[in-house]
Amino acid sequence: MPQNRNMNTSSPEQPVRSDDPLDRLPLRERKKLKTRRAIQHHALRLFERQGYDDTTVEQIAAAAEISPSTFFRYFPTKEDVIVSDEYDPVMVDLFRRQPAELPPIEALRRVFGELLPEMFVSDRELVMTRLRLTADVPSVRARMFEAMRSGTQGVLKELIAERTGRRPDDLDADALAWAVTGVLMSAMYAWMDGVVDFEAMAGLVDHNLTFLAAGCPL
């Protein structure tokens, strides 16, 4: 996941609004993400056609008309082309736009309430393919856990600490960030296990965040 955690949302490069949430990002970021998406598109197409294990980085690079070294500039491993996405910077931007008086979980409910439905509509097949491969390929599933720890969870921790006036390494902010990460993973596994359908995942994330904010009463 792109680690642009210090994104300056006051940049004079104002993105154009559209149905694609990535269009909220500055032009430079959008250009980089366009290249990432192109590589990921070719990789997932090859994985679906000939299998993950039988697809090499060299084949992906050839399909995307780039060199293998360029592939590794965007994705450190072959697994990363599946588990990585572009939504952390969008989440950061949306979170920082929320009213300052909102507590972190309520702000995140609004963020995910806007971002997830858009993502599931605009990138439905992409997201479903990535989730299927994560469920089916053990090495991808293992990499996904590590990417969540070094990517989304870290971003959430910094945002929570920032909103609550705590230090970036605050342990309470870290614990809450892990709890929110668990909410996201719970919804993902509910879909993988057939408990909910794809369209219900955004609602399940909101339900779980509400449950978390209430102190997980059982």
TrEMBL record:
Keyword Transcription assigned: yes
Q: Which PROSITE patterns match?
A: HTH_TETR_2
Q: Could you tell me which residue ranges the HTH tetR-type domain spans? A: 33-93
Region (Disordered) spans which residues?
Answer: 1-29
As annotated, the DNA-binding region falls at: 56-75
Q: InterPro entries this protein is in?
A: Homeodomain-like_sf, HTH-type_TetR-like_transc_reg, HTH_TetR, MftR_C, Tet_transcr_reg_TetR-rel_C_sf
Q: Which UniProt keywords apply?
A: DNA-binding, Transcription, Transcription regulation
Q: Name one Pfam family in it.
A: TetR_C_14
**Biased amino acid composition, Polar residues:** 1-13
Spell out the molecular function terms from Gene Ontology: DNA-binding transcription factor activity; transcription cis-regulatory region binding
Q: Where is the composition biased (Basic and acidic residues)?
A: 16-28
Note the superkingdom of the native organism. Answer: Bacteria
Q: What is this protein called?
A: TetR family transcriptional regulator
